[in-house]
Specification:
By secondary structure, the chain is α/β, with parallel strands linked by helices. It contains 11 helices and 9 strands. Strands 1-2-8-9-7-3-6-4-5 form a 9-stranded mixed β-sheet, sandwiched between helices.
Amino acid sequence: MVKRFVAWVPWLLLACAAKPPTSDVKAAVVPPPAPAVVSATPEPPQAAPVAAAPAFRDCGELSCKAFPSAVAAFDYVLRDAPRVLAIGEAHAQSETPGAAAKSASSTKRFMDDLLPRLAPRAADLVIELWLANGSCGKVEQKVQKQQSAVTAPQAATNQNEFVELGHRAKALGIMPHALVPSCEQYQKIAGAGAADIEEMLAMIKSVTQRDVEELLSKRAPERLVVAYGGAMHNDLVPRAGREDFSFGPELSRVTAQRYVELDLVIPEQIKDSEAWRALPWYPHYSREKAGTEAYLYSWAPHAYALLFPKAADAEPAP
């Protein structure tokens, strides 16, 4: 079962934890208390106006734009004035050779360089990090074991970086929120047999969408809600057969098209594989010709992929 998904979406599978890795997690990433999805937080001052358009050069098809930095490309995306910004990443893998293994992860680059650009505009950050419900008994332990097969290929640092992302967001005045599955959802995953991974992916979509919609109902219209996790869940136009795993279409509807999909990509991690070739921007990107600029592709309104600048001495992944 796992091998089937490794061929299908090796870089889209979730980074999650059925139990918090340290006692500090709950202080950094806030799970929604029952019955409300989130606790109320004070509304900070109104966000600053959107900055002038960053300078860029046209670089080809799919509205390709080359920017001097990832920050400049990110600022350009924010000009869409989203109410929901859904960011997807290719989770770092444990067996990544060469320059890709040495490069900083998408999560680290986001929290170091891009996350500060969202303050004070963003009110909340929903992170694809599971926290235990705590009231579901042994079924949670069973699901945790099932998760191990999914997350085994991922870098051991992924989970800690997601927790650190919560700390960084909170320090900026952006309230972080983890995902807390219901006992019913745990039961569905535990009893799904060979379809357990599909149930996990559907749960991620369902809980994230629920929490984001609840946050939208509590925040002023000018405040931004950010979701951060694996790519695919944030797709505005899901590939056939993956509609149940993507919250993009529904959140776009409830925000009156003020939803933005943004995938973060590290060039050194790109492989000539089925999963990568299926991405809409892949045929239009050349690792050999790419320089040290940040590339931004858009294949549909409000759907983007931001490719970080390539390191000068980087070798492509095999």
